[in-house]
Write a structure and sequence with these properties.
By secondary structure, this protein is mostly helical. The chain has one domain. It is 83% helix and 0% strand. It is built from five helices and no strands. α1 packs antiparallel against α2 and α2 runs antiparallel to α3.
Length: 126
Amino acid sequence: MMLHIRDREDFHVDSLSALNTRKTMLVMTALFFMCGILATLNDILIPHLKALFELNYAQVMLVQFSFFSSFLISSYPSGKLVERIGYQRALVIGLCTMGTGALLFLPAACGERAGRKRGRSRCRRP
């Protein structure tokens, strides 16, 4: 990238632009790795689901199938959302959706079905 510097003001604007680009790339790289970690958590979750709910291999692999098929189902609407509201707002909406999904694991982990299968529940109840 060539910088054409005429005076100090031009240099200041160009350096701020480069700094913003660097910050944006760092955030996007971090989000990429966060999504990768989220995808690998399924591999950790599968043996626990298999033991907890007494599932066979085909049933427990539906977890992987549903996770990765969600990319197929949501890619077109997500692209339209990015086109409509911009990538920054779409990233915030995506992060909020992922956070909500993560918080929904709490009641699922404390649910009655999980507690009855093993005869106890891991969640503390008042």
